[in-house]
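ugh finaly. both done.
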Amino acid sequence: MPRRSTDLYICDIYESIRIIVEDAVNLSFNDFKNIKNKRDAIFFRLMIIGEAVNHLPKLKSQFEINFHEILRKYEYMK
């Protein structure tokens, strides 16, 4: 299988950020905790961002994002 281009990974990141912002724009933290579908959708998009960043070494080295910590917090909220 051919490797995806950098542009496609950046598009994945951009699209995921756009969807997260759209889903969370008027969402209080309590709503975020209590509405499982919204919470799951946002964490799914964070996982997509994490996977895309892992395929972009130059981008990955510039950010200190601990996706394992994010997922651990997600499990705590379930």
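ok and the 2nd:
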Amino acid sequence: MPSTIDIAQIVKLQPFKHAVSFADKLVISNRIDIEMFHHPCRLNAISVLLCKKGEIDCTISLENYRISENTIVVCTNS
């Protein structure tokens, strides 16, 4: 697995069951269950996480976060 991953590689390596992708440039999903994200990697993309209800525990830049209801998180690759 490469240390830097872009959206085209994500779509190719892990087809989304609950998502729509557009020309390997944009993926919209209401579910994330991708094995490659269980280990640290650099994502060459902008990620947007919207938590509509409940909570989600995630790790961003090796820091743990709990994202709660009605929260939006934007991560860039810089």
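summary for the 2nd one i guess: The longest helix spans residues 7-13.
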